[in-house]
Amino acid sequence: MMAPHDRPSGAPIAGFEFRVLGPLEVLVDGALRPMGSSQVRALLTCLLLEPNQIVSMDRLIDTIWEHDPPASARTIIQGYVSRLRKLFGEGDPGGTEIVTRPPGYLLRVDAERIDAHRARALINRAHGLEPAERSRVLAEALTLWRGPVLADISSSRLYGMVAPNLDELRLLALEERIDADLDLGRHHQLLLELSTLVDRHPLRERLTGQLMLASYRAGHRAEAQARYHELRRRLSDELGLDPGPDLRELYEQVLRDDPALRSSPRRPEPALGIKRPIPAELPPAPAGFVGRRRELGELDRLLAEREQGSSRLAVLTGIAGVGKSALALTWAHRVEHEFPDGQLYASLRGYHSEREPLSPGEALTSMLKALGVAADAIPVELDDRAALYRSLLAKRRVLVLLDNARDSEQVRPLLPGSAESLVLVTSRRRLDGLVVRSGAKVLPLETLPTESAIELLDRAGVPGKSASEPVAAAELAALCGGLPLALRIAAARLAANPARGVSDLVHELTDERNRLHALDIDDDADTSVRRAFDISYRSLHPVHAETFRLLGLVPGHTFTADAVAALCDTDPASALRRLRALALAHLVVEPEPDRFGMHDLLRVYARDLLAESDDCGALPRLLNHYLVTADHARRFLRPTRDELNFTDGTRPPEIHDRAQALDWFDAEWPNLVAAVRAANARGMHELAWQLARLQFNYLMVRCPWEDWIRVYTDGLDSARAVDDPTGKVLMSAGLGVAHSRSGRLDEALGHYDESYRVAVANDDASRRAMTQINMASVLFRLQRYDEAKAHCQDALRVYRSLGDSYFEAGALNNLAMVEQVNGEREEALAHLREAEALYRAADDLDTLAMVLNNCGEVCIELGRLDEGESYHHEALDVALKCGSAMRQASAYLGLGDAARCRGDLVVTRTRWETALAIFEAEGSPRAAEVRERLDALA
């Protein structure tokens, strides 16, 4: 891709081009592409303004609808995203795309394709150029504005957030270009343009100053003075202000004919389209900090060497828990006044137990935003981000604190280019690469000497306690190895129980001397953290200690008292008391009421402890809890359709109806996915496939396709591992449903065929008939009608012979679909009405809504519009009651069909558009059918 200054601004771009500096336009290979409704355009604009950044669903909803979003806002946005994805897929294969990234979406695009980004890039590039080239580049940037920004976006909130910034960017670029022209001596040519601009923006001091300067240089001294007095009167009358110091100084220079006015003025800072904030990102300094006088003195000396041009980079290094971050933050807060342009902070996660280290690109993005750069102005390439970062920090005095770095390569792109700023890095490694290439000063931190360790115990624990037991305090400091983290935990134990003496804690720790010594001799930094956790763990009551160990078995990231009760084989009230005790000891957290979590390192530590104890029955108990609760909850959603039964008389008290069942599944879903995966990985295969099956009713309602396929794939793997025929049939069939409902018919048919072959091999007539119904639905959509009809008729005979009325209804419904397409509509309607009665008796609302929609569709084809509309209205009511978005969409589609037959095209379009938004949001292949109808309607 050519650089912005290498390609004329009006030259077409191959593939997609996005224009927001005027009415929103999308061009493909230079041809304008229609974008549809204003809300679709508003959604795309939100993503374009923050390219390659995640925009949350909540922010999209709030931006598009402000304070009154519809109940189906999320579904509608999902539908709009599907439309945009289709557009991008057609015009730019492998390029521009919208990616789902919790909690929202990310537009992956070369930002050079967005005119606002190109404009900012040109404006930024102009800084530092010679006047003639600067004027040319800025003029090119200004040509990208095509009129009022986003004039066609109806969302007043979006317009109000975006347009002023982009308008301000244009004015800044214009002022910069005028400055360049003044440097070139073009004051005569500028007089008319500046007069017009000042009339349009009468309170903009910089434009007035430029007009004054141009007038003075053109020999119109009186006009220059008059413009100043006119602005002064306006400011006084309208705002009660006087002109700023820069303009007052210019006026005084005009009065005294200052010779400096005849030469080029000092060029101002680049116009980046932002008001530079002063970041203050330092986290709070730790309480009770002690010691480190030598290290603090070294940092002070480094600060004092600023004017000597020496290195402005220091690295604090040492083992985990030695207090690197505490020292860095304490010193940073002490000297923050020395950095009037702000303080930047980034946690680089170099040694996080489960999360990946923060990449330099991510860190630069965060810091650029803190420096006031709009998200859509952040360059895509790492080198460009680093260059912009260095430009913003040039000649500025900023303190940059980079915490927990992994290596030199992670840090190097984050270093400013000038010696005005100072960078302080903490790391478990020495980062010698920064010493060699960047002249870093390394300050290795040792453990605290006894005197400082006792002082820390006193400050962090009970003041004065160490003085009452000085020998025991010295022994405690030695047992903690002078490690600040271990000392703080020990002090917390003393503070939690003021009656406990220091010698009591010393006696407890002495029993662990061998293990502490073993941990100390390992050079890995994690051992020090583990040693500190060991001190905390050994101070727990035995019951709480057992609970803590068992929490290491939890597959997910959160847990409730009910789950922990099963894990620990106790009752929920006792489990809750245990969790609250662990929370007081800071070994678990309670991020929301009655839902707990554990720090990642503590989780690893708990798992390590489990290797030394016999808790083999805990995980099966937890999985059984999920089985029992999921089985109970699923029965509120749909009939079970299988023989699995884990309720064993237990009814979780918090689940009494459908809404509570959905709430439980929603809250526990990540844990359920992790539980199936853990059961599969640990060889608990019967539990794995059964737990996967118990999610089916929830999956049918919420349709999380990726999780659905992941869970059922694990379930099928487990069913195959134990050669369980029921498990293999149900897991294969479930995968078939997932692929079928998401439009992957060939994959669905393959899974259905596998489930059919297993049922036949095991002479299971009922399961064989079920798989035939499933196969018929896919064969029907593949237009293999004869095969579909044969399977339906076979299944119908089997279920009638078995007296299974519920599955008989499914066979009747699918048979009716084939009859309908074959023109046998009366026969189809009769079979559908039989199925309707059977589903009503079974109280299967989801499937009943489907059959009602099918009845409505056939009635409309028979010309019975009133009857058809009645069926679709009832289907919509039932679908709303059970929460099935797919059935709602089908009902809206059918109601639109009825309106079309009556000739009411306005109602038709409204209903079909609603159906389209839902189908697209659900990933249904029926969206294409609705789009075709809307296109034909237009």
Task: Describe this structure as you would to a colleague.
The protein is an alpha/beta fold. It folds into six domains: 1-184, Winged helix-like DNA-binding domain superfamily/Winged helix DNA-binding domain (Arc Repressor Mutant, subunit A), CATH 1.10.10; 188-262, Tetratricopeptide repeat domain (Serine Threonine Protein Phosphatase 5, Tetratricopeptide repeat, Alpha Horseshoe); 293-439, Rossmann fold (3-Layer(aba) Sandwich), CATH 3.40.50; 450-538; 542-616, Winged helix-like DNA-binding domain superfamily/Winged helix DNA-binding domain (Arc Repressor Mutant, subunit A), CATH 1.10.10; 845-938, Serine Threonine Protein Phosphatase 5, Tetratricopeptide repeat (Alpha Horseshoe), CATH 1.25.40.10. It has 43 helices and 14 strands. Strand 1 (16-19) and strand 2 (25-28) form a beta hairpin. Helix 5 packs antiparallel against helix 6 (156-183), helix 25 packs across helix 28 and helix 39 runs parallel beside helix 41 (885-902). GO terms for molecular function: ADP binding; DNA binding. It comes from Saccharopolyspora kobensis. This is DNA-binding transcriptional activator of the SARP family. InterPro entries: AAA_16, AfsR-DnrI-RedD_regulator, BTAD, OmpR/PhoB-type_DNA-bd, P-loop_NTPase, Sig_transdc_resp-reg_C-effctor, TPR-like_helical_dom_sf, TPR_rpt.
